[in-house]
Amino acid sequence: MATIATLERQRKLVPIEVHLDRGEKAWRVLYGTPDFIAWLDSDLVSLKTTIIGCEIEPIEQVDAVFHEYVSGLYMHPDDRFKKLSCRPDHFVWEFKTLDIRIFGWIPRKDHFICTFGDMKDRIELMRSYGTYIAKTVYIRTQMALQPTHIASAEYHNVLSNAH
After folding, report:
1. What is the pLDDT of residue 163?
2. Is residue 38 part of a domain?
3. Domain around 87
4. In 43-99, where do the E strands start and end?
5. 83 burial class (0-12, 13-18, 19+ CB within 10 angstroms)?
6. pLDDT digits (tens, 9 = 90+) for 121-146
7. pLDDT over 70 for what percent of the chain?
């Protein structure tokens, strides 16, 4: 049975640092798997927006949604933060930006573990939501984290708000 601290020491989880403005404090915590961190550092930086007229590139979109999350702002369900539907329910969640979807799970309130990121258009074209859900559940199972996840679809059970 692993804890988040154990998985950090084993380098199976990496804390994601988010720049906060002066006076802001971290309210929530983000982690990524090593593969997710590699995606952030290499793939994400080269992606371009597919939204006509959008001046915000995917990396800036991810920075913004991560800032909202860590600073404790309300994450509008279905718009910025969503539990994905699946039968049976696996309690996999996603961060949503105009161009990007980031998949992961919530092992305890206000803690999110990111496993995969991809372009929204690519996910929809390839119909890969189910694949990302299954891969996220597989990684979660392999980590043997205790508790594994919060089995709730209710926002207030997985996130608290600073404001």
Report:
1. 74
2. yes
3. 4-152
4. 81-83, 93-96
5. buried
6. 999 999 999 999 999 999 999 999 99
7. 100
C-alpha dist (Å) from residue 70 to 120, 161, 163: 22, 10, 12
What CATH number has the domain bearing residue 99? 3.30.2310.20
pLDDT, position 85: 84
Q: Is residue 162 part of a domain?
A: no
Residues whose CB falls within 8 Å of the CB of residue 8, separated by 6 or more in sequence, listed in order: 14, 15, 31
CB 129 within 8 A of CB 116: no
Domain count, the chain: 1
46, burial (CB in 10 Å: exposed 0-12, middle 13-18, buried 19+): exposed
Evaluate whether residue 17 is within a structural domain: yes
Compute the 3-state secondary structure of the chain and give helix, strand, coil in percent, each to the nearest 5.
35, 20, 45
| Token couple for 65 | 């949604």
Q: Is 112 left (phi over 0), alpha (psi -120 to 50) or beta?
A: beta
pLDDT at 14: 98
Q: Is residue 157 part of a domain?
A: no
Q: Which residues contact 30 (CB under 8 A, 6 or more apart)?
A: 15, 16, 18, 66, 69, 70, 112, 114
- 80-124: per-residue pLDDT in tens? 999 998 778 899 999 999 999 999 999 999 999 999 999 999 999
